[in-house]
Amino acid sequence: MSKKELVKEKIGKSAMQCFAKFGLDKTTLDDIAQAVGLNKASLYYYYKNKEDIFIEVALKEGEDFINSLQEATLLKEGIENRTAFYLESRFNYYKNVLNMNRVSVDTLNKILPRFFELYNALMKREKIFLTQLLEKAAKEEKLMMTDPENTASVLINLTDALKHSVEQQAILKGETEIDYTQSLQDIKFLVSLIFTGIRK
């Protein structure tokens, strides 16, 4: 790592600790600068604002998480168990990424466009991984499937849609806590429903 990369990593870790403690909205660049041992002006050399820090660190952590999750998924027995475990685990991870002590709607609107632009690259990798799982099961004649790639894409898109739906409902109702229980149950039902139809 270069000196700049080491400093950015230190800033990122300190910032995420501040976000977890104060929430993304209430954390200031002064808080982050103090936590990392720099002055506020020095932070501007590395980042324009706290949202940029959050996005970069969240995506890096997301990439590390997905790598670990994919390894853990391969240890599960059976294609249905692997798929359900993968979808539920990624759901639980992503629901916490943008919930740093209740991020406000204004902050969400500010960070979401860039966040999703970067997140799309990660999602492509996720769809490739799930496609490969399904293709392997189909080749082993455990599934009747003609389009594993589309099936993988639909599974991930639908689980993300379930998460976004419950979040939007909470925002519209002005709720500060989001209950994801039903969404997780719906994911289990969705996987069970699909695999009932394609299992040999």
Question: What report would you give on this structure?
Answer:
The protein has 200 residues and is mostly helical. It folds into two domains: 1-48, Homeodomain-like (Arc Repressor Mutant, subunit A); 50-198, Tetracycline Repressor, domain 2 (Orthogonal Bundle). The protein is built from eight helices and no strands. It is elongated, with a radius of gyration of 19 Å. 20% of the residues are buried.
The 3D shape can be described as: elongated
What structural class do you assign from the helix and strand content?
A: mainly alpha
Total beta strands: 0
Mean pLDDT reading: 88
Distance between the termini: 49 Å
Sheet with most strands: none
CATH fold-level assignment of the largest domain: Tetracycline Repressor, domain 2
Helical coverage, percent range:
over 70%
Number of helices: 8
So, the CATH homologous superfamily of the largest domain? Tetracycline Repressor, domain 2
> What is the subunit organization of this protein?
single chain
Gross CATH architecture of the largest domain: Orthogonal Bundle
In N-to-C order, the SSE pattern is HHHHHHHH
Q: Which class of the largest domain in CATH terms?
A: Mainly Alpha
Q: Radius of gyration in whole Å, from Cα? A: 19 Å
